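Input (structure):
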C-alpha cells in the first residue's frame, strides 16, 4: 500500500512546489525585472505620492480638469449594507450598468448626460461624443476619445486662464494612437492629461481635487 501511496504524495508535494511556489515566484521576478511599472499596476507618482493608475479612471468633477467617461460602478450603502450606492470608478467593484437599449433608466441617464455635457462645455459640445455619456463595460475606463477631449478644451482653458491652443497641444501630447497601428481607436488618458495641465501651472495633484 505504501509503495502505491508514496509516489502520489511525492508528486503532490513536487507539483505544489513547482506550480504553487517556484513558477509564480519566477514570473513575479521576471516581471519586476523587465517591466516593474506595469507589474505593479502602472501606478503614477507625483511629489512622492501615488495619484492614480494609468489603467483606472478617476472622477474629475471641477471645470479645471478634463472629465472622463461616465462610470456605473457601485459600492455598499453605508446606511444599509443590503443596498448599493453610486461610486464612480470603484476599482473593487468593476461592472457595467447592464441596462438594455430600451431601458428607461439608461435613456434617462444618457439624455440627462447630454444636457449636462452641453451645458458644461457650451458651443463646443453641439455634437456629443458617445463616450461622453455612456459607460464602459468595466466602469473603470481611463481614456476618452480625442473628440471628447476637444469638446472640453474651451471649458478647461477658460477655467485655468490658459490659451486654448496650448491646451490642445497638451491633448495632442496625451493622445495615444491605435495599438500596433490598427487595434482599437486613438484615445486620451485623462489622468495623464490632467497631470500635464497641473505641471503646466505648477498646481496641486489632481488626485486630491478628484476626490472633492
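Output (sequence):
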Amino acid at each position: 500500500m505504501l509503495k502505491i501511496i508514496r509516489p502520489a504524495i511525492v508528486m503532490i508535494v513536487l507539483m505544489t512546489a513547482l506550480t504553487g511556489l517556484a513558477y509564480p515566484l519566477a514570473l513575479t521576478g521576471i516581471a519586476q525585472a523587465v517591466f516593474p511599472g506595469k507589474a505593479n499596476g502602472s501606478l503614477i507618482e507625483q511629489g512622492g505620492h501615488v495619484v492614480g493608475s494609468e489603467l483606472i479612471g478617476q472622477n474629475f468633477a471641477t471645470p479645471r480638469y478634463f472629465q472622463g467617461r461616465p462610470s456605473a460602478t457601485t459600492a455598499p450603502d453605508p446606511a444599509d449594507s443590503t443596498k448599493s450606492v453610486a461610486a464612480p470608478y470603484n476599482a473593487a467593484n468593476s461592472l457595467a450598468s447592464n441596462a438594455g437599449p430600451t431601458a428607461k433608466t439608461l435613456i434617462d441617464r444618457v439624455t440627462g448626460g447630454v444636457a449636462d455635457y452641453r451645458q458644461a462645455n457650451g458651443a463646443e459640445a453641439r455634437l456629443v461624443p458617445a463616450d461622453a455619456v455612456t459607460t464602459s463595460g468595466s466602469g473603470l475606463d481611463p481614456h476618452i476619445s480625442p473628440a471628447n477631449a476637444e469638446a472640453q478644451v474651451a471649458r478647461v482653458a477658460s477655467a485655468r486662464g490658459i490659451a486654448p491652443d496650448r491646451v490642445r497641444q497638451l491633448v495632442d501630447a496625451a493622445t495615444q494612437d491605435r495599438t500596433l497601428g490598427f487595434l482599437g481607436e486613438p484615445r486620451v488618458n485623462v489622468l495623464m492629461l490632467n497631470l500635464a495641465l497641473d505641471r503646466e501651472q505648477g498646481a496641486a495633484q489632481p488626485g486630491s481635487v478628484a476626490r472633492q
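Notes: Residues 2-34 form the longest helix (33 residues). Residues 41-210 form one domain.
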